[in-house]
């Protein structure tokens, strides 16, 4: 079953084409990886899906419903949430309060404080942050704040979660834990993930399918093995 | 929960004292209490917008002025209660109209824009009044001080209850998320534009009515006075001194400010603004979370 359908999306900033004619679909329950060098358009694509960036042409459909042109908060309530590459914690409130807001306003729309608290705690538990619940979010380590980004996305009750470089800046041990966490979450919560990642090992290990972008142009799409053997990809990456 | 019940007891004692006060017949004290209630109402309403969302308004007086003007225009032809209701309505509608464009800018730009807008409205009304040949309007048959005081007290209590309620509601949590990071708030489903507008309008209604009651107290309308920017500055000062992390901050701030003003006015009128200025700087530097922040720390230690 297709959960996300992207057709002919293009986006220019000034004269620079950040995305040109990108089309692909994402299957429900899968992990879909995006790869490409800095400036390849990965984060722009996330912005287009989550509503922060309006594409010049093309459309994004979630479960057959076209969401292009909707505001980020509307798209979140439909069931898509994203994390930010540069973490954006609500630094001045507790870790638990961070996820409670998500649970109150996101797609799950928990109506009572008790429900939201429970959903928030479950999200913290899922990413291994339960012990830090009462800590101020601004006091977390980078690894903790990356986890909080994921917990906040989960607590919205989203079905499709866009993870933007959640492993950048983490130690190899932390990356290993993050990979475990994500594969666990996918099954336990029946989630679909899209992943932007520079840590290639993790991307290859987690993804069912990968789209390779080069300066906004899709150059290859396929399983990790197909991508690793693709001549176009090898040329762009290794010259 | 414990601090909430202590606050509740303190609030009830304070309210009881405030209600008994007019029976003493000491107009001087009632006058001070009137000012206190007025500043509590203004600072508390300001904090619903500015402390919760981080959109610091330096033009809160504009809503007082609009309310005062409405009462000045309608008093005599409408019953007083209707006049005051109209004042609150006019302030709320004005906030709805100016809110959408104004809330698009953030940080220092928002601060300056609100200040400029308040000055703009003031000058427009000065021009209108001049054009009409009115330099000031006298209000006849204003109610006695004791009645006005009770109305002001009611407003202070109402807005304090509202502030406590908002802080613990879904709305309040959304507003705090906007303050902490607006893009992240929007990404987790918080309808940021709608929430900011709700806070802006909610924060405007009470000052509108307060402005009307202030006018009845002075029984004299003059635009430059009704829209005096010093009122906006005082509100921000009280919020800083009292702290705006909780609903008791504005109350503590208003007390500190009014008591200090009374002392300073009586003894060192020429040093009044200087001492107030120094105090403000000291608080910003050394007590950034205000008096209520100090209390929080003390309670946390016990």
TrEMBL record, chain A:
Gene3D superfamilies on file: P-loop containing nucleotide triphosphate hydrolases
GO cellular component: plasma membrane
Alphabetized CDD domains for the sequence: ABC_Mj1267_LivG_branched
Ranges of residues in domain ABC transporter: 4-238
Family matches, as InterPro entries: AAA+_ATPase, ABC_AA/LPS_Transport, ABC_transporter-like_ATP-bd, P-loop_NTPase
SUPFAM superfamilies according to UniProt: P-loop containing nucleoside triphosphate hydrolases (SSF52540)
Gene Ontology MF annotations: ATP binding; ATP hydrolysis activity; L-isoleucine transmembrane transporter activity; L-phenylalanine transmembrane transporter activity; L-valine transmembrane transporter activity
PROSITE patterns per the UniProt record, alphabetical: ABC_TRANSPORTER_2
Keyword Transcription: no
Superkingdom: Bacteria
Keywords: ATP-binding, Nucleotide-binding, Transport
The keyword Signal belongs to this UniProt entry's keyword annotation: no
BP-aspect Gene Ontology terms: D-alanine transmembrane transport; L-alanine transport; L-isoleucine import across plasma membrane; L-valine import across plasma membrane
Name assigned to this protein: ABC transporter ATP-binding protein
Organism the protein comes from: Mesorhizobium zhangyense
Automatic annotation (TrEMBL), chain B:
Main location (coarse class): membrane
One GO cellular component term: plasma membrane
Topology relative to the membrane: Multi-pass membrane protein
Localization in the cell: Cell membrane
InterPro entries: ABC_transp_permease, LivM-like
Transmembrane regions listed in the UniProt entry: 55-74, 80-103, 110-128, 148-166, 197-217, 223-242, 272-291
Keyword annotations: Cell membrane, Membrane, Transmembrane, Transmembrane helix
Domain of life: Bacteria
Record-level Gene Ontology MF annotations: branched-chain amino acid transmembrane transporter activity
Protein name (database record): Branched-chain amino acid ABC transporter permease
């Amino acid at each position: 079953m297709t959960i996300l359908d992207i057709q002919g999306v293009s986006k220019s900033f000034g004269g620079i084409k950040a995305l040109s004619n990108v089309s692909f679909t994402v299957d429900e329950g899968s992990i879909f990886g995006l790869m490409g060098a800095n400036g390849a358009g990965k984060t722009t694509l996330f912005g287009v899906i989550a509503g922060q960036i309006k594409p010049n042409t093309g459309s994004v459909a979630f479960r057959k419903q076209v969401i292009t042109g909707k505001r980020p908060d509307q798209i979140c309530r439909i069931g898509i949430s994203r994390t930010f590459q540069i973490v954006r914690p609500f630094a001045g409130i507790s870790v638990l309060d961070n996820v409670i807001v998500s649970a109150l306003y996101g797609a799950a729309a928990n109506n009572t404080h008790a429900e939201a608290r429970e959903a928030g705690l479950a999200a913290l538990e899922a990413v291994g942050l339960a012990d830090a619940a009462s800590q101020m979010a601004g006091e977390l380590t980078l690894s903790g704040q990356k986890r909080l980004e994921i917990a906040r996305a989960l607590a919205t009750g989203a079905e499709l979660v866009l993870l933007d470089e959640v492993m950048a800046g983490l130690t190899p041990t932390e990356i290993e834990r993050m990979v475990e966490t994500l594969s666990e979450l996918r099954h336990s919560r029946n989630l679909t993930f899209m992943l932007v990642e520079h840590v290639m090992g993790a991307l290859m290990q987690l993804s069912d399918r990968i789209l390779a972008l080069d300066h906004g142009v899709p150059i290859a799409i396929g399983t990790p093995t197909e991508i690793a053997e693709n001549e176009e990809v090898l040329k762009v990456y290794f010259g | 929960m414990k601090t909430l019940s202590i606050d509740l007891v303190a609030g009830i004692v304070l309210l009881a004292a405030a209600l008994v006060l007019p029976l003493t017949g000491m107009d001087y004290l009632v006058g001070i209490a009137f000012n206190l209630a007025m500043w509590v109402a203004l600072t508390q309403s300001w904090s619903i917008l500015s402390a919760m969302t981080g959109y610091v308004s330096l033009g809160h007086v504009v809503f007082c002025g609009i309310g005062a003007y409405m009462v000045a225009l309608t008093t005599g032809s409408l019953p007083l209660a209707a006049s005051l209701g109209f004042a609150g309505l006019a302030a709320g509608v004005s906030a709805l109209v100016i809110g959408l464009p104004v809330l698009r800018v953030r940080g220092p730009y928002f601060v300056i824009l609100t200040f400029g807008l308040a000055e703009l409205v003031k000058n427009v009304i000065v021009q209108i009044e001049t054009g009409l040949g009115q330099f000031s309007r006298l209000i006849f048959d204003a109610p006695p001080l004791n009645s006005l005081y009770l109305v002001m007290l009611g407003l202070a209590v109402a807005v304090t209850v509202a502030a406590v309620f908002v802080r613990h509601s879904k709305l309040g949590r959304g507003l705090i998320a906007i303050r902490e990071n607006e893009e992240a708030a929007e990404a987790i489903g918080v309808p940021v534009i709608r929430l900011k507008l709700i806070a802006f309008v909610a924060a405007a209604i009470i000052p509108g009515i307060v402005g009307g009651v202030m006018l009845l107290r002075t029984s004299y309308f003059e635009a430059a006075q009704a829209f005096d920017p010093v009122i906006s500055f005082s509100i921000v000062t009280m919020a800083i001194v009292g702290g705006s992390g909780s609903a008791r901050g504005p109350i503590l701030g208003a007390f500190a400010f009014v008591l200090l003003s009374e002392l300073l006015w009586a003894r060192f009128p020429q040093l009044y603004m200087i001492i107030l200025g120094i105090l403000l700087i000291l608080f910003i530097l050394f007590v950034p979370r205000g008096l209520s922040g100090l209390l929080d720390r003390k309670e946390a230690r016990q």
